[in-house]
Amino acid sequence: MWPFIAAGYPTVESTALLLRELGHLPIRGIEIGFPFSDPIADGPVIQQAFSHALSSGVRVGQVLDAIAEARPHVRQPLIGMISASIVYRIGVPGFVDRAAKAGLDGLIVPDISLEEAPALAASLQQAGLKLAMLVAPTTPMDRSLRIAESAGGFLYYVSIQGTTGARDALPADLEKSVCDIRETTGMPVMVGFGISRAEHV
Amino acid sequence: MNGGFDINNRQMDATWPDAAGRFGRFGGQFVPETLMCAVQGLAAEYESARSDGAFWDELDGYLSRYVGRPSPLYFARRLSERVGGAKIHLKREDLNHTGAHKINNTLGQAMLARRMGKHRVIAETGAGQHGVATATAAAMFGLECTVYMGAEDVRRQKLNAYRMELLGARLVPVEAGQKTLKDAINEAMRDWIATVDTTHYIIGSVMGPHPFPMIVRDFQSVIGRETRAQARDQFGRLPDVVCACVGGGSNAAGMFHPFIQDREVRLVGVEAAGEGLDRRHSATISRGRVGVLHGMQTLVLQNDDGQTSQVHSVSAGLDYPGVGPEHAQWAESGRVEYAAVTDADALAAFELLSRTEGIIPALESAHAIAHAVSIAPTLPEQHIIIVNLSGRGDKDCVEVARLQGHHID
User: Fold this and answer.
1) A119 touches chain B (CB under 8 A)
2) Most buried of the four, A189, B31, B237, B403, by CB within 10 Å?
3) Which residues on adjacent β-strands are paired with residue B123?
4) What residues of chain A lie within 8 A of the CB of B182, using their CB?
5) Which of B292, B36, B170, B229 lies closest to A84, judged by CA?
6) Domain containing residue A76
């Protein structure tokens, strides 16, 4: 299990604390969402958390500081989920350098497509960080393979064709889809979006 | 003359975008993988439609018999006399069915939706003109339609909000963020992510991921092609200056694109300076920097963290923190100049055109009028300025009255 937290929510001080607490749980890793003003892949819950964080003045630098503070106390991998807008504003090499120094193990940049990924993938690889790329239910298998070649580490399978947020049910063929992708690409596959109940895990 | 497309000529003009959907370093496809299948499918469908003469013949038929094209090129004699200097002519997109240029694009995209077998369309809208034009095309083609509109814009543009519902569309007011155009686009994209199988997103401007900036520009280029032919008929030459307002930039892109190779024609895009460039505004090209927003790399008003800035314009259609990537490229190459006009100057032009010509312009278009009025006196009398009058101002009367302290609703 990889829990998700919205950084800076409810307060910027809570983020490092929350990461340390989560580190005590039997989880595989933690996904840390950087607040963004226009998160089109996210549903209402994450949007509201991001808006709240931004309106209380949370900055990217503070999120990286919180990660750096918690890092020595958390064994599990920490993956940042961040918009291309933030990464490009700071600059790809500059942001990757800061992410590495803060102790992140990898990044998910949901709005970077396979076509736009090469520069970021190269920069992350040089810094020893993993790039997790999204694969959707609508992604053809040959494209999944090419995405797997670009991704440095693992694939992030979007379980439902939609935005993030709780769903009562997940697609019936989800397990088979994930197995197919894992087998074909030979890469670890993380499943996200719409997971809200114990039996979904 | 009808709105006819000359396919060969159109393709010769289309130097951008490249195969990656780039206009120089702008454009591209910055969308989640959940949308890639949809944008790539759309690109393939458009490629096939683009070389299909029957597609354009059918669209031309709608443009002439349903929209009322060609729209006139009209000499604004009293306005020109009032301000002096160059002669101001108006391309009357305000006379189109539904009252703005937006219908040129929505009919074309509705035809694409039908070609792709999609029975539902969605749209974002700022001033409501694109929402009305989408709802109109949906009614005409028998498609289901949902329009997202910022709650603040619903307030500012009540008449258009009502028109969309009358046309059978479902109107969804968006309460997130600043409750304006940008937030409506976010919500429309979220809808599309979840409904790509059945739904086509009719983007209303030359923005978003490739191929939208190209598709919308091509459908709107009928404006510039007609204007070019009308100028040759009426003046025996091309105009000296062509002027159009820029929010996302669709009416300007459609007007400018056929003139891009005519280096002697000065092209001027007019953005909204709001309360002034040092206060709240939405002058993206004047003050923005390279960033990523709504699926494209372009000029964006954003802070040092890449968070989108709050923007303002009295005109709901120009109130947008990004701009189409082709405009960013034209600005960078210097082919098109970009100016900015304040709320106050746009409101003055709104009244001036009403009183001198009996034409009430949309507040968006009033920005372009204001700029033409400011440069005409500096140019020789024999010069010709063409302003794209992209829409009519009936929709703005209640809001302008409110700003002047009257209540008419």
Assistant:
1) no
2) B31
3) B147
4) 38
5) B292
6) 4-192
